[in-house]
Amino acid sequence: MSLLKNGIYNNSVTTYTVVVCIGYSIDLIIYMLLTAGGVNLLLAYIASFLIGGTANVLLLRRFFAPGQFPIIKDVILSLSANGVIIIVGLIVFSLLVYWAAIPHLLAKVLSNVVSFIANYFTRRTFF
User: Fold this and answer.
1) Contacts 24+ apart (CB under 8 A), 82-87
2) Helix boundaries (H) for 7-102
3) Which of 20, 35, 51, 106 is the most exposed place for a label (fewest CB within 10 A)?
4) CA–CA separation, 94 vs 70, rounded Å?
C-alpha cells in the first residue's frame, strides 16, 4: 500500500479512487452475501452501505487524508454527511430495480456511482 502515498498514486483523485474502490468492494461483497442469504434488497443496500462507508472512512484516513477529527467522530460525521447521499442512492436503486427491472446487483453498482462522486467532494470540502 506504500504506492498509495508515493509514486504514481500521488494524485489525490487517483488515490481517492483506488482507496474508495477497495471500500466499495467491501460494500458490494457484503451486499452480495446478504442478498444471497435472503435479506431484503433495501435492507441489504443500507447494511452494506454502512459497513462499506465505515471501511471507506478508515481507509481514507489511512491513505487519502488523515482527517481533522478523532476517528469515531469522523465515522459518525462521514456517515451522517452521506445520509442524504444514501437516500438518493436508495431512490435510484429502487427505481432501477422495481421500475426499470434492472437486476439488483447492476442497480447497486449504478446507484453507488452517485455516492462515489458526492463522497469525494464532501470529503475534500469538509474533512
Assistant:
1) 82/49, 82/53, 82/115, 82/118, 82/119, 82/122, 85/114, 85/115, 85/118, 85/119, 85/122, 86/46, 86/49, 86/115
2) 12-36, 41-63, 71-81, 83-94
3) 106
4) 35
